[in-house]
Amino acid sequence: MEKMSYITRFKMLTIWNKVGVLGSFASISGLLALFIPSYESNNHDDLYIKGARFEPVHNFFVAEYQGLPNGLYETAFLYFTVLNVSGSDVFITSLDVVDVDKRGVLSNAYSSSGLSGDISKNTVVRIPAGQEVELGYSGGFKFSGLVKSLNLDTFLEEYYFSNTSSKISSRTNLVQEFNDKLATVLGGETKIRIKLYVGNQTPIAEHEFDITEGTDIFETNGKIQHSYFLGDLIHHLNSPYSKDTLNKAFKNDS
Fold this sequence. Notes:
- The protein is an alpha+beta fold.
- It is built from 6 helices and 13 strands.
- It has a 5-stranded mixed β-sheet with strand order 6-8-4-1-13.
């Protein structure tokens, strides 16, 4: 039997070295898979956004106070209910909101109780499997021109449920009237896109709302429930705490 040439031996040795490297890599990958948890949901089917609501600040109607401009005039914050329909807990680390139609509704107002796009400023929110959680967005929304567009004397007399944490307007067709008012004030259809993330900015769900197509509290079809927004606004107009300030503000504007 003839001895193999040095070149042939070298080629065979090189092949076996490559096989060995590949085998080692596969073994290491297998070990890592045992210790590093993975989240396999990339199809946005694990979370269902049932609805949302705007919560106006208590001085929503006051343009200025004691000669100083109110930075939160006509400002509200967004909260939305998310149902986890998967079989495991989901941990939301951040969220973003996009002004789809560029209506200028996103303001510089900030609430520490909501999630932002900056993970370092957030507290992770756990949504248990099969349960729902209300999430808040840290950024504010500006409804420029809404106060002056309302007939405040009439609006003040609207009935609402005052014994709930978020007040609720009782007249159902008031919602459609409010939608029409918002479409006029904001300049037409006003969509916003919510983006939810897990881990380090890994998308888990996104959803679009049209602010000008709100619903009442009886619909949980993924829209903004303006009955809450309206109820809070009516309550602020009737609140003894702010009535004196509001009356002065209205007189100054007239």
